[in-house]
Amino acid sequence: MYRFLIVVEKARNNYSAYSPDLPGCVATGSTRDEVTLNMHEAIELHVQGLIEDKLPVPESQSFAEYIAVTA
Asked: Is the CB of residue 17 less than 8 Å from the CB of residue 39?
């Protein structure tokens, strides 16, 4: 089992997502749920391709935190 952080960003008319640990692995969707599902599928295909090509699957190095500031 592999776990990867994904970053979801709101665009003007949709959402986009990427994983910092898997360069080039991206997805879009009309909603947050859709982009998350599409990204899950994209990561599965990406990892399967790496395995089929006998390339290493990168270990997840990324993490996310929120920082609170007062203005």
From this structure: yes
Spatial distance between the Cα atoms of 18 and 26, rounded to a whole number of angstroms: 4
Residue 71 has pLDDT above 90, yes or no: no
Question: What burial letters (b/e) apply to 40-54, b meaning 16+ CB within 10 Å?
Answer: eebbeebbeeeeeee
pTM, two decimal places = 0.89
> Which structural domains are found in the chain, ordered by start?
7-52 (3.30.160.250)
Which of the two residues, 71 and 36, has the higher pLDDT score? Answer: 36
Angle at Cα 20 formed by Cα 43 and Cα 34, nearest 5°?
45
DSSP 8-state class, residue 18: E
